Amino acid sequence: MSASAPSVPAKGGRSALPYLGVLALGVALALLPYAGPTNHVVSLATSAVIFAIAGSGLGFLWGQSGQLSMAHAAVFGLGGYAGAITAKFFGLSFLAAMPVAVLVGLVSGALVALPSLRTQGHYFVILTFAIGEVIAVVQRRIEWLTGGQEGISAQPGKQVLLGLRLANRGEYFTLIVLIGTAVLLVLLLIMRSRWGTTLRGMRENAPLAASLGVNVTLNRIYAFAISGAVAGLAGHLYLYQVRFIEPNLFTAQASIIFLMIVLLGGKTYLLGPAVGAFLYFFLSEFLGLPPVWNLIGFGVVLIVMILVAPNGILSIIQNLVAPRAKPNAGTEAADKGQAQVSDLPNKA
Amino acid sequence: MLLQQAYNGLAIGSIYALIAVGITLVYGLSRIIHFAVGELVMFGAFTTWEVQRLTGSYTLGFAAAAIVMAVVGILTERFVFRFTLKTPLTGFIVSLGLILVFQGLAVVFWTANTQYVLPPLQGAWDLGAFIVIKQTVLNIAIAVAVLGLCYVVLMHTKYGKALRAVSDDQGAAALMGIPVRRVITSAFVAGSVLCGVAGWLVLSAGSISPHVGDSYLLRGFAVALIGGLGSVSGAAIAGIGLGVAESLAAGYVSSGWNDAYVFGLMIAILLWRPTGLAKGSEGAHI
């Protein structure tokens, strides 16, 4: 499925261009509140940026290492809970709690990966689903810590970071765009490193990578840990946007939304999840449909995208801008249902 | 207390077994993890409820649920899953999209509110320390009958043989003149109908909502995985086992943690035996 996927956005070798591009985009986006948008647009854009960050974690995991986690929303939630609980019990500030949220995400991400030592393929994906559900039950039941169904809140108060007031919606947006840009730069650095190449090698052919001396298991756990750390950070940012979290925000359905965001933009592209997140939040706003029809619409989008353009909108744009011969056009035609019986898999 | 909890577990486990056999049939034939089965159960329940409201008959509701789900099975296979047979992971993601679509449609048709319903059979037999709710007997009887029918069809008919052959080796089955495509479609139909029947049984719990399928989805998969994906008898046995274990844990420890027990048990079993408890899983077999 991902055999033809372009790996890294630009093949510029050691070029600094992609980094500068991400930085420029980030700075431009960070200035948005100064262009005088309505509060509603700022709030939507804030959600989009947070989901873009969390989605980038999943996109890194899925696009680079080829592993899919359906516990991503649960890890995202744990990051939020880490921020809220440390604020409530130890009075930690936004900044002080941030490393805690990242660490919680890192560790829980790695723990989610542990079953991959024993299980593979479908079994593993469903296990991540089950792990996510167990985390949700724990969040719901340990009431003294998490507030149970009632949830738990955190207030930004008078906190200021980089001269930006957390309580001010516009300034908070600018702050999280800067944080998100830093996250994307780190992910880009990892993707373009030698280890990033190793990860993509594992994605294409794990046994071959192992035969070349790559420790597939350990590298997989690292990839999960990185993805978890990003999700935990995003969860923390989410906490200070909504200022109140409860377990129902982080169920399997939220994981499906993350998956859709990543798929929509393009899982192998650094900016794919960000594009997906902005489309997700602004398209539903633009169409102005009731929430239920949005849900149905995005379900249809998810199905159509994976069938028609499994590498996302960015791959369509890339093909339009710089058309090139599809390396495996044959199999794609087969994907569209014209396959002969003999083409079907005998055993999974 | 022990007997009572075990019996309650048997009643709930028979629903899990039906769903799990549906999951396993679809997986065995197409290698697709069909995650929208919870929504199929929900649709089965709502179809029954709707027909019962209009006609007052649960029997008609049962027939309607089976027929509607058969149609849903054909439609989803023909228009969606057929295109994903080569890449089963795509099929899985497609089914996630179907969850959003089905749940949304259910909210459009029936609102997000919980609907209260009377079970088809009311009342109970009081056997001293042991109370048997009449509906649960009916549930178990239906599950046994349906699963028994599946067994007979799979093992003792030409169609069942074709099904097992396709599950074993599609190429060889095609060479033997088995219409592979049609057999796969029929597996989707059978799987959907099983979930529809499970939906009818779910009604007996007394209330339904568009999210009623959620807890059954993961339990169905827990059962299918514990029994070994593709193993029909494994799914049946694991379904009853999980129902009883869950009911005992709820009765003796605390029911608030029920989901955690179920998924914890599933995670533990899969870590111990990564392809399920049943021997030689992968592929529909008995």
The main sheet of chain A orders its strands as: 1-4
Care to count the β-strands of chain A? 4
Mean pLDDT, all residues of chain B = 85
Most extensive chain contact? A-B, 53 and 54 residues
Largest sheet of chain A: 2 strands, antiparallel
Strands in their spatial order, largest beta sheet of chain B: 1-4
Write the CATH architecture name of chain B: Orthogonal Bundle
The CA-CA distance between the termini of chain A, in Å, is 14 Å
Output the helix-strand order of chain A.
HHHHHHEEEHHHHEHHHHH
CATH fold group of chain B: ABC transporter involved in vitamin B12 uptake, BtuC
Q: What is the number of helices of chain A? A: 15
The number of distinct helices of chain B, counting runs of at least 4 residues, comes to 11
Order of helices and strands of chain B: HHHHEEEHHHHEHHH
Assess the beta-strand content of chain A as a share of residues: under 5%
User: pLDDT average of chain A, as an integer?
Assistant: 82
Low-confidence stretches of chain A: 1-12, 326-348
How would you describe the shape of chain B? globular
What is the number of strand segments of chain B?
4
